[in-house]
Amino acid sequence: EDKVVQSPLSLVVHEGDTVTLNCSYEVTNFRSLLWYKQEKKAPTFLFMLTSSGIEKKSGRLSSILDKKELFSILNITATQTGDSAIYLCAVGHSNSGYALNFGKGTSLLVTP
Amino acid sequence: IAGITQAPTSQILAAGRRMTLRCTQDMRHNAMYWYRQDLGLGLRLIHYSNTAGTTGKGEVPDGYSVSRANTDDFPLTLASAVPSQTSVYFCASSDGANTEAFFGQGTRLTVV
């Protein structure tokens, strides 16, 4: 059975801290791994990873994929209160068309 | 219209009633999806469509049906609503394999 597991499920940090969010997966016919940020409503896209060892970076956020160990991490440095959100990991595979299989998410709260 | 539009934004529905959630995209994406999001369970795929005229079942299809008569529209129908279908429903679209999915703003449905 395909699965995507995120950890931790929730996290509370202080502004300025660095956080690492984890995503492990077991899927057949892996295509890609994506990270999304969800605040109040629709998830918004952060990164898509298809190759091992290549870091994707956008400002204070970065992510990397390990296709041998079947996991990805999302790092956020110098966290701000605006980073408070649910972070979703999703894996693309060929078992349901082009649909993504999501993990349950990590709820991040950044306190002032 | 820009992106994906879902309607209604929210709805309270009596159990046993029929309901269609509407989804329209203007990005000419081939693939479209319906997810439901429940606390503690993350986003789960209900149905998907890789291209106009074709549909497939996702992880939780029971009680739901979809159609894809054209590229832009992908309505989700609940034939006879039950309280366990209370959820937030997200429609999404993408341009195929290894591309990000774009999400609508969601429909909050309460079945009483």
Question: In words, what does this structure look like?
Answer:
The complex is a heterodimer of chains A (112) and B (112). Chain A is an all-beta fold. Helices cover 0% and strands 59% of the residues of chain A. Chain A is built from no helices and eleven strands. In chain A, strands 2, 4, 5, 9, 10 and 11 form a six-stranded mixed sheet that branches. Chain A has a five-stranded antiparallel sheet with strand order 1-3-8-7-6, with no helix packed on it. Chain B is an all-beta fold and 112 residues long. Chain B is 0% helix and 48% strand. In chain B, the strands form two sheets. In chain B, strands 2, 4, 5, 6, 9, 10 and 11 form a seven-stranded mixed sheet that branches. Chain B has a four-stranded antiparallel sheet with strand order 1-3-8-7, with no helix packed on it. The radius of gyration of chain B is 13 Å and the shape is globular. The N and C termini of chain B lie far apart (32 Å). At the A-B interface, strand 4, strand 5, strand 9 and strand 10 of A face strand 4, strand 5 and strand 10 of B.
